[in-house]
Amino acid sequence: MPLYIGIDGGGSKTACVLGDENSVLASSRSAGSNVIRLGEKYAAASLQSAISQACCTAQVSPLKVQAACVGASGAGRPEVQEQIRALLGSILPRSSVRVIGDNEIAHEAALLGRPGVVVIAGTGSVAYGRNQRGETARAGGYGLAVSDEGSGQWIGREAIAKALRAGNTSLLTAAMRHWQLSSQEALIQFVNRSPAPDFSSLFPLLLSAARTGEAMAKSVLQAAGCELATLTDNVLRQLWREGDPVRVGLVGGVFANSPEVRLAFLLTLRECWPTTAVSFQIADPVLGALSIARQM
Cβ(248)–Cβ(198) under 8 Å? Predict the structure, then answer.
């Protein structure tokens, strides 16, 4: 029985699924495996842990895995592909290994190989599309400093910026408590440090504040939805004629957890491109990686 592995190798976590031709036999999680941000040694340990856990759960040897697909940020660069392929080669020595961008496995998971646009909003963000002619385009996903609009990082940073400008003590106090800081001055120093702090860790605080009626928290989440719709519209205009019907799939914790983001995204996108068909069944990219591994 052929066995396949799909991996979604992110910066904060690595998701792995092991399956046969029709079923998922085991799944696992480990720490991040982004080689660009974390280095080869750390990434190798995370990949080894995720694969070992999945194989142990399914009671199979890694030597029996026929093919593996890894979706990773930055995998459009040949040197990153080679790094990850080499790491997987030592863990799965008898497997064919394919390394592709995390946007590609998300597209497969959300759209099942059909033309359309997938919008990813997790720690980072990107919109990625493929049309009926096989042409592709993307918008966003260039990193927190210049992009990642509507992502968890963007939401946390925007919330702090707006709260500081408006003197919103409730949000600032929540952020100080979260980061264990004693004063607003300490908070200002903390958010301006290099490297930047993990602003995405504030996302749950914004969700909680929005649920209790905090207007500024709601406005930031709504703005995130609008930004993500703008990225989507950018991709649509690169690949389709205005008025064409296009499927849109969604991926990531920002969409999964915030009704404010989902509603603002839908309303803004409908204004830009009324003929889109948006699915709110949030897809899991690692299943896209498994699907691609089965096709190898």
Answer: no
Does 67 score more than 90 pLDDT? yes
Q: pLDDT at residue 76 above 80?
A: no
150 in Cβ contact with 228 (< 8 Å): yes
Q: What is the CATH number of the domain that holds 130?
A: 3.30.420.40
- For residues 148 and 187, give the distance between their C-alpha atoms in angstroms, rounded to a whole number: 23
Instruction: Judge whether residue 112 has pLDDT over 80.
Output: yes
The average pLDDT across 106-115 equals 96
- Looking at the structure, tell me whether residues 54 and 90 fall in a common domain: yes
By the 10 Å C-beta count (0-12 exposed, 13-18 middle, 19+ buried), 23 is classed as exposed
Does 206 share its domain with 228?
no
Q: What is the pLDDT of residues 119-175, one digit of tens each?
A: 999 988 999 999 999 999 999 988 778 889 999 999 999 999 999 999 999 999 999
Instruction: Write out the residue range of the structural domain in which residue 210 sits.
Output: 153-214
Q: What is the mean pLDDT of residues 258-278?
A: 97
Instruction: Confirm whether 292 is domain-assigned.
Output: no
* CA–CA gap between residue 115 and residue 131 (Å, rounded): 5
Helix (H) or strand (E) holding 26: strand 24-31
Q: What span, in angstroms and rounded, lies between the C-alpha atoms of 71 and 99?
A: 6
Our count of domains for the chain comes to: 3
> Same structural domain for residues 7 and 90?
yes
Torsion of Cα atoms, 170 then 197 then 262 then 11, to 10°: -150
Domain-located, residue 42: yes
